[in-house]
Amino acid sequence: MIIWNLPPYYHNLISTAPPCSASPTTTILSTSSSSFSPENFTASLSATPATSPSDPNKRVFQPFGNAAALFVLMGAYRGGPSSFSVVGLASKPIHTFGKPWFKCEYLSNNGTTTRATKAVKILPDWGYGRVYTVVVVNCTFPSNPNSDNSGGKLILNAYYNESPNLFERLTALEEDAGSYNESKFSPPYPYEYLYCGSSLYGNVSSSRMREWMAYHAWFFGERSHFVFHDAGGISAEVREVLEPWIRAGRVTVQDIRDQAQYDGYYYNQFLIVNDCLHRYRHAAEWTFFFDVDEYIYLPDGNTLESVLAEFSDYTQFTIEQNPMSSVLCLNDSTQDYPSMKKLVNTIKEFEQKKIGTKDVKHFS
């Protein structure tokens, strides 16, 4: 698993083409006029109105509404035979100033209940959270709670504070009978390399996306897969670029636009990346995370296999960032870049062979 700590990047991903002329998507809420009548509204979460105290100096604090959810579930995944990871968001003030905690249970379809010890929570966003922060809850049981493969449910109890009396109970994961397959947790994995992309937002250039996708599909080879997360940045033009790769089974696009309801750091990119890493933990030998304005390049004739062999004893490493030149132009008639032209032609041929694209001008 390879993880990079990268600064915000899409402000630099400026389209080389004019802005998209398509009309912006507008969501219209259609409802009957009667639904807006006062009697159909609930104004407060308070069960009973506050009573006036007999002492005029006794002040009353009466709550209305709900500022942030205790926990927002995105996904839950097996980490192995006896462990699970639950990925989501939680109120940052609660986790910064309070002492919330979690407990896991597994309710088997055979009628038994397996309880884990107090779950371990991880806050992986390094303090960048806003109203919401990212929480990864690790649930480890003494043994496989679904050893008979009868299926069951992973239950998460999320506690507001140290008291065990106030909590929310939710179903994090359901396993069907017969679905457990222990061989998934060991090689050979479906892919050799897997790419986890961060939240795509803003005006992503379709031509640059086409270059990026073709290059890295060639670079990582046949046994690679790419997972993109659409936070509003995959326009119709970008989708058209990715569609042939989706049909070829090389790309998965997940719609995460609903994350905008929860105020987290940079389109909740820490949430998205952690979810992807846990979701595809046993899908590939190596998992890469970098941005779509960055290209993996190996100098001095090194191969990806030889470089990764040097890090076979490590669970993760980072890659040094170096700026690309902003003055090179492949089509500059006064310059000759034989190595660059050879690479471009190689990738063009690869793209045409794999997804049948026409030889149009898009590599610049």
Please outline the helices and strands.
Blueprint: E1 72-78, E2 83-91, H1 92-97, E3 101-108, E4 113-118, E5 120-122, E6 132-140, E7 152-159, E8 167-175, E9 191-200, H2 206-220, E10 224-230, H3 236-247, E11 251-255, H4 269-279, E12 284-288, H5 304-310, H6 338-355
Parallel strand pairs: 9-10, 9-12, 10-11
Antiparallel strand pairs: 1-2, 2-6, 3-4, 3-7, 5-6, 7-8
Helix pairs in contact: 2-3
Averaged pLDDT, please? 84
Number of domains: 2
Residue windows where pLDDT falls under 50 for at least 5 positions:
1-46
Secondary structure class reads alpha/beta
Number of beta strands: 12
CATH class term of the largest domain? Alpha Beta
Query: Helical percent range?
Result: 10-25%
List the strand order in the largest sheet: 1-2-6-5
Query: Based on the structure given, which CATH architecture of the largest domain is correct?
Result: Alpha-Beta Complex
The CATH topology of the largest domain turns out to be: Spore Coat Polysaccharide Biosynthesis Protein SpsA, Chain A
Computed Rg: 25 Å
Helix and strand element order: EEHEEEEEEEHEHEHEHH
Q: Which percent band covers the strand fraction?
A: 15-25%
Overall spatial form: globular
* N/C terminus separation: 31 Å
Work out the helix count. Answer: 6
Q: Care to describe what's here?
A:
The strands form 3 sheets. A 4-stranded antiparallel β-sheet has the order 1-2-6-5. The chain folds into 2 domains: 72-183, Immunoglobulin-like (Sandwich), CATH 2.60.40; 187-355, Spore Coat Polysaccharide Biosynthesis Protein SpsA, Chain A. Strand 9 (191-200), helix 2 and strand 10 (224-230) form a beta-alpha-beta unit. The model is unreliable at 1-46 (pLDDT under 50). The chain is built from 6 helices and 12 strands. The chain has 364 residues and is α/β, with parallel strands linked by helices. 19% of the residues lie in helices and 24% in strands.
